[in-house]
C-alpha cells in the first residue's frame, strides 16, 4: 500500500506471519516502555542520592498524580488508535486523517483544561493523599512544574498514538529516546547546579522533564512533516482541524470507558498509597521503589497489549477475524515468556535491585524486598488479562474491561488491603495483588470466549471489509 506522496509502502499489520509481525511491532514499543521507565528510575536515583528519602517520597506521590492525569486521556487516545486502525484496515485513509484532525483539537483543549485544574488543586490533592507533612512542600513544588508541562506531555503521547495506530512503532521509539536522554542528562545538572546550571533541588528534576518533552514533541512534528507522513495535516487538510461531532461522540463514548479503566487503576493506586502513607515515610519510599521496579515487569504486557490492540483493530477493519484470534493467543504466549523471564531475573537480584534506589541500610530496603517477593510473579497474570482486554477493546467493546477493573481493583483489592493491613499488618497487604489480578484474568477470559464483543462497533457508518 503506497502513500500518495510516492513514499515507501506503509507498514501493514493485516498480512504476513502473526507471531513475527507481532514481535517486530511490539519490540519498539517495549523498548520505548523500557526507556520511559528507565528514565523515571534514573531520575529517582538522582533524587534519592542527592536529596534523600524525603524527596523520593515527595516525587512518588506527585508521579501518581501525573499518572492519574495521563490515565484520564489514555482512553481517548486509544479510541483514536482503534478508529485509525479500523479505517486503515478498511482502506479509508481520508477518514483516518479526519480522526487525526479532530483528535488533535480535542486533546489540546483538554490538556490545557487539565493543566489549569491541576495547577489550582495540586496542593489539595497532595493533602488528600495523606502526603507526609515533612515532604509536602517538595511535592507541591515538583507537581506544579509537572502540571505546566501537561500540554507537551499530552501532545507527545497523542502523536505517538497516531503513529502506532497506523502501524509505525519505530518512530515513536526514536523520539522517546531523545526525550529520555535529555531528561537523564539534565536532571543531575539542574538538581545540583553543576556548571552553568542553577541549583534548583527537586524543582530541577521537574524542569528537566518539562524541557525534554517540549524539545521532543517539536522535533517529532518537524520530522513528520519533513518525511511527509501520510496522516499529517497539510495546508489542504486544515479543514480537518475542527470538531467533527460524530468522531467526538465516538471518542467520548468509546474513550471514556477506557479512560475510566485507567482512572480506576490509578485511583486504586492513590488509595493504596494513602494506606501506605499511614505507615510512615519509609514505607512510602519503599512502596514507590517497588512500584518503580514492578513497572519494568509490566512492560512486556503493556507493549504487547498495545501492539495487539493496533494489530487487531486493523484486522477487524479488514474483516480478518481468523487473524484476530491468532493475534490474541500469540500475544498471550509472548507475554508469559517475556514477563516470566523478568520476574525470575529480578527475584534473583531482588535486594541489589532495591538497593539501587534506597540506602543499603535501614528499614525501607527490607520493606521493598518483601513487597517484590509477594507481588512480582502476579504480573504474569496481569499480562494475560491485559492482552485479552486489548483485543476486546479493539472491536469497540470497551465497557466490560472497565467493569472487570472496577471489580478487581476497587471492590476486591482496596477493601481487602484495608482489612488485611489493619488486621494482619503492613506486610500482608501485598497478597491483594495476585488475588485481584487473578479475578480480572478469569473474567476477561470468560468474556473473550463467550461474550458478544465481536458484534461491537466503534462508530456508526464505519463498515468492516
From TrEMBL:
Q: Which chain regions cross the lipid bilayer?
A: 21-42, 62-84, 105-126, 138-161, 173-191, 203-225, 258-276, 296-317, 329-349, 369-388, 395-416, 428-448
Q: What is its main location?
A: membrane
Tell me the CDD domains matching this sequence.
MATE_yoeA_like
Q: What are the subcellular locations of this protein?
A: Cell membrane
Which Pfam family, any one, appears in the UniProt record?
A: MatE
**Origin superkingdom:** Bacteria
Q: How does it sit in the membrane?
A: Multi-pass membrane protein
What are the UniProt keywords, alphabetically? Cell membrane, Membrane, Transmembrane, Transmembrane helix, Transport
NCBIfam families in the cross-refs: matE
Question: What name is this protein filed under?
Answer: MATE family efflux transporter
Which lineage ranks, top first, belong to the organism behind this chain? Bacteria, Bacillati, Bacillota, Bacilli, Bacillales
